[in-house]
Amino acid sequence: MENTLELFTNYIKKPQNIDLDWEIKFVLPVNDFIRATISSRIIYDDDQSVPDKDDDTRTTKAIQYKEMLAIGFAMRF
Predict the structure, then answer these.
(1) DSSP labels for 34-51?
(2) pLDDT digits (tens, 9 = 90+) for 2-12
């Protein structure tokens, strides 16, 4: 398991607002040759605006999610 958390604040402009980038990753061996990786990433950037899901004419601050499932084949020499 890998767990990475990055926090950032602009101490000159809006120091009370914190940007977040958090990723968690699990690597699961299926057998000797195949591995599965499951990861999730959460990003919040106070400077970025996304379209409001209820009103397309407005933008709002929101959390961004990314989830991934990867299956890989590997051989060791």
Answers:
(1) EEEEEEEEEEE-TT--EE
(2) 999 999 998 88
